[in-house]
Amino acid sequence: MEYNEEDYLMISGLQHYFFCRRQWALIHIEQLWTENVLTVQGKHLHERADDPFIREKRSSLYTVRALPVKSHEFQITGVCDIVEFSEDKEGVYIPKLEGTFRIRPVEYKRGKPKREAVDEVQLAAQVLCLEEMFAADIEEASFYYAEPKRREHIQIDQALRSQVKTVIDEMHAMFKRRHTPTVRTGPHCRACSLRNECLPKLMKTETAESYIERNLS
After folding, report:
1. DSSP, res 111
2. Residue 41 — very low, low, confident or very high, per pLDDT cuts 50/70/90?
3. pTM for the structure as a whole
4. Rounded distance, CA 153 to CA 140, Å?
């Protein structure tokens, strides 16, 4: 089967989609992006984790940073901050490591755990990719949150898997239509890096791209 990877969704976009569907569309459909202090802080944190040249081995644990992942089944792609391969007789065979291993992705996050399921859905999407790539079953994954400076473990259960699949289907449908939703203003707009491009007080029906083109022509 042939795959058009140009239409694959970015796993990182799941967080944008949960925060604001319009923000996700502005970034991933209209290709707009602006940095603010929150995105810079998050980028700095990930740069410390994402070093594709670092592969560590400590005893029976291999740590791989910035591992590119993708799923042809769900047509998603991205990069895992850290993936740990722990030697385990009940694990999956990894040819390059010449042994059987249990796989655990670890995602680095700025701030504290959120009430919404956005982080869990993003991490579960990484799990779906890793399972497809390594023909593995992954039941648990982890976050490292910068403020409490500790790991949080989550179970990748059936309910979470169903949720991430539903969200991915919604995103694919919107991306296929090249649809940018109208704005829904709220307190979250103040933290949005695209608030100037989005212009929530002025725009109700047209896209940010068309608004900018109309006013610059």
Report:
1. S
2. very low
3. 0.77
4. 7
